[in-house]
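Record type: monomer structure entry
Structure origin: computed from sequence
Chain ID: A
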Amino acid sequence: MVEALENRIRMLREESERQKRFVAAFTRELKTPMTAILGYAGLLRSATIPSRFSAPGMTGKSASAWMTTEKESHRKNFPESRNRFTG
């Protein structure tokens, strides 16, 4: 009986270690793309849109201001739709 308990404890410890390794690997896999996404999001928030990409009257405005204008325009033209933009 003692041997069975010791085997069960050993198996549980091994399973716990496998789970810890999985979570660590999974976390690393998520951090890599999230770092890039957060970096680009920060760039978009602080960047100025070049005139060749901006709508009339938007030259020199931040990407954040441009997105706000896009959201407002979309809501006005498609009031029933809320899927394209969040917020």
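Annotation 1: The chain has a mean pLDDT of 76.
Annotation 2: The CA atoms of residues 71 and 85 lie 6 Å apart.
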